[in-house]
């Protein structure tokens, strides 16, 4: 009887636990692609406000070490300073993986950014790998907002 009761309790427990609900449709991928296109376009224009609108108000971006940006306002402030002194262009964005779970997307990519100083200095290209967590949000111009991002050095080619 004790074994039967244990089995019954375990069955009820496992039936109530929900597995990760992974959804991956062409429509979701296309909508996320539009968000990334909007982001790269805003960078190309040097539009800090437009870039910030594509991020959650409570965004946290981890750029290594103590370089952490918390919140949409802080991100816009940082970008305003960067864009005032440099032209910033994404020149590579190679998607390594994308996983959808409900209204969340997690994407890993290799990126390269060309930073050209407006004072006439030589351009510098920075490469990295990022993991970005996006959430669907009707208030976003693209339908998605960046909630978290972590970057690290890109692997050697």
Automatic annotation (TrEMBL):
Xref: SUPFAM superfamilies: NTF2-like
Signal peptide start and end residues: 1-19
Protein name: Nuclear transport factor 2 family protein
Domain (DUF4440): residue spans on this chain: 35-137
Keyword Signal: yes
Origin species: Deminuibacter soli
Domain of life: Bacteria
Gene3D superfamilies: 3.10.450.50
Keyword Signal set for record: yes
Pfam families tied to this protein: DUF4440
UniProt keyword annotations, A-Z: Signal
């Amino acid at each position: 009887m004790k074994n039967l009761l244990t089995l019954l309790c375990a069955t009820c427990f496992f039936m109530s636990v929900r597995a990760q609900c992974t959804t991956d449709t062409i429509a979701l991928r296309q909508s996320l692609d539009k968000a990334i296109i909007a982001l790269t376009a805003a960078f190309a224009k040097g539009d800090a406000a437009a870039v910030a609108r594509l991020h959650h108000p409570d965004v946290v971006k981890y750029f290594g070490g103590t370089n952490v940006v918390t919140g949409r306002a802080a991100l816009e402030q940082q970008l305003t300073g960067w864009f005032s002194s440099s032209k910033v262009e994404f020149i590579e964005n190679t998607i390594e993986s994308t996983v959808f779970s409900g209204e969340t997307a997690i994407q890993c990519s290799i990126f390269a950014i060309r930073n050209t100083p407006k004072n006439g200095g030589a351009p510098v290209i920075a490469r990295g790998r990022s993991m970005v967590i996006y959430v669907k949000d009707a208030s976003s111009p693209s339908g998605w907002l960046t909630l978290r991002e972590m970057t690290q050095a890109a692997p050697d080619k």
